[in-house]
Specification:
By secondary structure, the chain is of the alpha/beta class. The protein folds into 3 domains: about 5-185, GAF domain (Beta-Lactamase); about 195-350, Reverse transcriptase/Diguanylate cyclase domain (Alpha-Beta Plaits), CATH 3.30.70.270; about 355-610, EAL domain (TIM Barrel), CATH 3.20.20.450. The strands form 4 sheets. Strands 15, 16, 17, 18, 19, 20, 21, 22 and 23 form a 9-stranded mixed sheet that branches.
Length: about 625
Amino acid sequence: MDLLDKFLTLQQSLTKLGVENSDPEKDDSECRIKAILKSCCELLNVARASVWLFNNNKSSIICQFLYIKKNDLFESGLQIAESSCPMYFKSLNTSRVINADNARTDLRTKEFLEGYLTPLNIMSMLDAPIFKDGQLSGVLCIEQTETFQYWDMAEISYAVSVADCISLVYAQSKWLCEKQRIRYMERVDPLTCLENRLFFQKRIAQNIEHSSLNDKCAVILIGLDQFTGINKRFSYDFANKLLCEIARRLESISASSPYSLARVGGDLFALWLINFKEQNELESVILKIQAQFTDEFKTFTNEVINLTASLGVYSCYIKELVDKDPLRKAEIAMLKAKNAGNGTISYFNPVWLIEYQEEASLEHEFVDALNNGDIVPFYQPIVKQDYQNSGFALEALVRWIHPTKGIISPYIILPIAKRLGLMGELGNAIFEQTCTDINGFLNAGLDLQRISVNISSEQLFSSQLVNKIDDCLKAHQVAASLVEFEIVEELMAGDFQVLSTQIEKLTDLGIQLSIDDFGTGYSSLSRLKNLNVSKLKIDKSFVDGLPNGEEDICIVKSIIGLAKGMGLDLVAEGVETQEQANWLFENGCDYLQGYLISKPIHATDIIKLMSQKNHFFNVENRP
């Protein structure tokens, strides 16, 4: 057989071996490499063939597979350090092939003589490099014992092809490992190592498809109560640790039972029960879940915290499932439970699904209304006793002009915006329209002093707030002195440094700030003292009892005294009677706002109302 025929025969054998042992979906790399090494020995009629891979820092090579033809067995584990064979390692990194016909005298291999070649009676070596990700990662070593082997070009080419084939086997093995990792990540929540929502829902769908119509099933959704507060108070790291601990506790319920547990949201866990027989079995699982929250949890500093969970439960027979999505119904029940109070259990009621669908429809309409400009500010006058001589102010209050439902109040608008994460967009839209209306009021000749605009926490703590406000004022050519922002008192209990910085930036623009609903929150007076605000607004709940309620009189007089002592203006909200107005002005309140003057009305109606120059109420002139 001439050299060319020999080369073709060897290559055909290798190709056939690769095809017969390749499974694209199974990592059979070890079996394939062993088969390749065994074939090497047989086709080349050599004694040994092995694969060696570098360690992490490439300071040594470690034998992964060594086939010994004489004994028909595999070995592994031998390690050779670069420090003992520097010439060989240098050759590995610079040469494509090491073809040592006489390994005992070849400069590249003779370093092995005492510790490797002589003890094993190795006479010749043929080594070819193995690559991973384009980098040298190891070597294929073909060895002949007892007699010298003079490697011809066909054998050298074959060795290189074998090494390349092994490189491909490793590449496919890595690809399969990565594919399996991705599949694992697709089904597992990376934090808790529980099933994630997507795979949990797939499991439910598969179970439903393969279950009897008379089987009972249930989903229990577990929503942690007040978890956002824990995250803010104790740090993100502790919150994650707590979620993992809860996952382990809940796993103890499903470990010995055919229940599937998953983390289906940030602080939401779910348990899927299929084919249970009696209702008391479901109740037993619920009790076990509640029991996991009776034991206290501890922080990194051993501070004890008590955590509760609200449960939403949906159970039915398989034949009663219409949309094959019981998790959705459990979610509705869980939201009802949370509204009822921490630690509550709520069982799904079909009526809630109708309510939920109506709510979802309204949310969709809200987004369209926000984009179409149907959510606008209505304005309520804020007046002094001598407003006809000193002008008036307004508060911008959000309203939704719905084509069929009429005017929708903020009691519906704001919760929708919060759920959808659109509080910032809503605030920006209202401020934009307010700037437009300010120009309309001034062009109509109204003696407008200022318009108050409510600002949400989502806006106030946004890094983009000041730039957006400044840009809007400039775009509409509105003086900053015509604008006042109102923040609710409870925001003062948040991150005071951020709050103070934002307020300073706004006042630097020339915008004044007031504290809304004062007296209903739990703000610190020291914080109030250090904030650059100019006005307090007395909450309507305290005005309602005037002028006869002793407790309300005491509270309002205290707020008035506080404001006067700090040099702040004072507005009373919710003024509805002449008696309330008289008392408030007599006791030093600066401004009144409420139905006695006007309910919130559209900008066009404000122009008509404030152009009349009539008295809204009669208060005797006081010295």
